[in-house]
Amino acid sequence: MQDKLVTVQRYLAESQSLHPEATGAFTELLWNLILAFKIISREVNKAGLASILGLTGERNIHGEEVKKLDVYAHETIVGIMQRSSPLCGMASEEAEEVIPIPPGRPLGKYVLAFDPLDGSSNIDANASIGTIFSIHQRLSKEGPAVRADFLQPGGRQVAAGYVIYGSSTILVYSSGSGVVAFTLDQSVGEFLLSHAGIITPAQGKIYSVNEGNALTWDAGTQRYIAHLKEKDAASGRPYSLRYIGSLVSDFHRNLLYGGIFLYPASQADPAKPKPKLRLLYEVAPLALIAEQAGGRASTGAARILDLQPTELHQKVPFIVGSKVDVERYEAFFQGRER
Ligand code: AHM
Ligand code: MG
């Protein structure tokens, strides 16, 4: 048991005090974001009551339309962050274009990209879902944020993280010096430090992939997965498959237990490889967390955090997890191992 209780506010205030030049703007940004996460968590926990209180998309007993949870999450983050935060713009998986700060409000030097509720197709089954976020410093000098402010390599993120709404609500966060996690105490409404200095195992025994897509994979990926099903020399067992289909949940389990998550591009039409996951809202922030925990994140051919984004909604192959496992995948993908 930890010898002192550390709230996320206290943790952020102590982190800020290590930087005498800090103005407090970044800390304020995170506080506002955390408020949005608490509100989303409350709403996600009520999802099971939808059939009593009104299905999402329908009208509730008060005659008000019940919003779909991913729309609700998007609007909650945008509403809170537009009102008071040191941002000059946002980008969301749920919005086509850059979301501006309303005219007349002060503009800050940060931009926020987020996936408000990833894995939302799992809500009805009560499986865990999550919010993913990524913060950069703006590149443009003044005025509202422009696309170029978001199109920066993940290696330049100031901070990133995710919230998993599961058996507990947990916030996992990195500002580039390790990974910490806070668990929400629902009764007092505070995130408390629960995991300090998370390090992912160098090698795991789990692989997570939608194996229904196997016939669309490149040959290297097919061979790699076949290799995982052979008996491992050390353990005498093959790898175990675990796939929830909710990225934050699959990622979080592997972060703690070790293993590899894969969403390779579909090669159904080899002339047009089709990845699924989005670089700015899903892939880059989780890549930062993985690397900060000692893991690795790759497309198979390149390190995720080195990729230069070209579009807001760009999709890339995503292979992430324990270092030894991801390096092995790269060797298969690149044909160095067969
Ligand atoms: P979403 O952003 O529409 O929720 O899609 C992303 C989700 C991830 O959470 C998950 O890893 C992936 O889609 C699962 O995809 P599939 O059902 O193709 O395996
Ligand atoms: Mg998503």
CATH superfamily grouping of the largest domain: Fructose-1,6-Bisphosphatase, subunit A, domain 1
Strand order of the largest sheet: 1-2-3-4-5-6-7
The radius of gyration over CA amounts to 20 Å
Compute the number of strand runs: 14
The third-level CATH topology of the largest domain is Fructose-1,6-Bisphosphatase, Chain A, domain 1
Could you please describe the fold and organization of this structure?
This protein has 338 residues and is an alpha+beta fold. It folds into two domains: 2-195, Fructose-1,6-Bisphosphatase, Chain A, domain 1 (2-Layer Sandwich); 206-333, D-Maltodextrin-Binding Protein, domain 2. It has helices at residues 8-17, 25-45, 50-53, 69-83, 147-150, 219-228, 247-257, 279-292, 323-333; strands spanning 87-92, 110-118, 129-137, 159-165, 169-174, 180-185, 190-195, 206-208, 240-241, 260-263, 277-278, 296-298, 315-316, 318-321. A seven-stranded mixed sheet has the order 1-2-3-4-5-6-7, with helices on both faces. The protein has a five-stranded mixed sheet with strand order 9-8-10-14-12, sandwiched between helices. A two-stranded antiparallel ribbon has the order 11-13. Magnesium ion binds at residues 93, 115, 118, 282.
